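Sample intake sheet
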Amino acid sequence: MTALTLSTSSATTLRADAVVIGVAKGEKGPVVAPGAEDVDKAFDGKLATVLETLGASGGEGEVTKLPSPSGFKAPVVLAVGLGDTPAKGERFGTEALRRASGAAARALAGSKKGAFALPVEDTADAAAVAEGALLGAYAFNTYRNNGDGNGGNGTKRDDKKAPLAEITLLGGKPRDKAFKAAAERASALAAEVNRARDLINTPSNDLNPKSFATAAQTAAKEHGLNVEVLDEKALAKGGYGGLLGVGQGSANPPRLVRLAYTHPKAKKSLALVGKGITYDSGGISLKPAGHNETMKCDMSGAAAVFATVVAAARLGLQVNLTGWLALAENMPSGTATRPGDVLTMYSGKTVEVLNTDAEGRLVLADALTRASEEKPDAIVDVATLTGAMVLALGNRTFGIMGNDDAFRTAIHEIAEEVGEQSWPMPMPAELRKGMDSAVADIANMGERMGGGLVAGLFLKEFVGEDITWAHLDIAGPAFHEGAPFGYTPKGGTGSAVRTLVRLAERAAAGDLG
């Protein structure tokens, strides 16, 4: 994990591999952002002119490197674009700071230390810069020759260098309790987002339901969490037909993990349920070529829940938080569930399986019923559930559904606050009829149009009576296949962790929307 320190030193006197400054788009060219006054002075007030000469515009995420002037302790100045200059009396938004610091941290991969002299007016700005830089300083090199990014020919690929080792946040007051708390929160949060990313990026031959459960047990021991793992025998005894039905085609049997953090002063309880399909072939309803290569990421919801519970423990939040990891591998075989089979769920309801590739809702249904038995104040499930949601909202935005409009709105506002793109989605009652079954209580498929909404309606059937519930479909943003941007890497992103942690903080303050 990249180290984070606070400093009130001048950017010109701090020893580092590079000093990071902000530059914004102005009406007549790039404008040097606040925080870089000492650096601009060292360039005789002509830093903006130099940057413009080098082609910099201040556009979001743009990175320009230039040699430091004489007298600098750092040999390089790295200017990162913040986007448009704020209107008079306004300031840069926290998400602009997160993305800029993330882009700078990525650009400094392979370096030992970066000094970040971005606009920091208060602890919110400091937290945003720290968070973005720590999230940008991420690499998954586990399977690359000792994890150092060296290729077999002894050369180092630029995109696989070790992440920036140390971040010094200039303008952060190391003796101020509020700034220290902001830095500690950013470090804990980034560590857990990166935990989720690591799990998502781990290939399915190494991450299966059993090994995922073992990882949860290890973290529980380290962070003082309560953990319970139901193996296939316990699931059969308990009647968890959804989990067993999805997992029965695989040589790696399913697991249901209960991971709980409690605080003696907690006044609210929150349950999180995560879809954990460690590999999704589609089962007998096999996915076509071109649609299964990234399906190791179908456990992103469970990874987000796991990381959030650990984050709550690290932050000592005054909330009772229980995570449910519904883990299974969806494979075709002679023992796999067939289209047309009927499963008896943990709730006692029967489900006709019309499509074995609509398996996430089956494992979530069992976990939602089990979570409801504990009567939490609210339940949130998180899942890479439907391609329909990606078609509706794109690759960077997750959908939010729920049985309580105020709670759905609160989660949407929280997501926007922490920089995760989301959008509230409806649950039209008329779509429920499409899941009527001639042989069972409900089918796992309904109308094709509005498939993401149909999935939400299915899940709603398994939430306990009078329990506030929301569903996050993170199928779009959970796994990024394009080039990195801001603090978002290629591969697993850790989508929803920051939203869920902020929700837990709100719950700790007695506010669940």
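Comment: Residues 149-155 have pLDDT under 50 and may be disordered. DSSP finds 14 helices and 20 strands in the chain.
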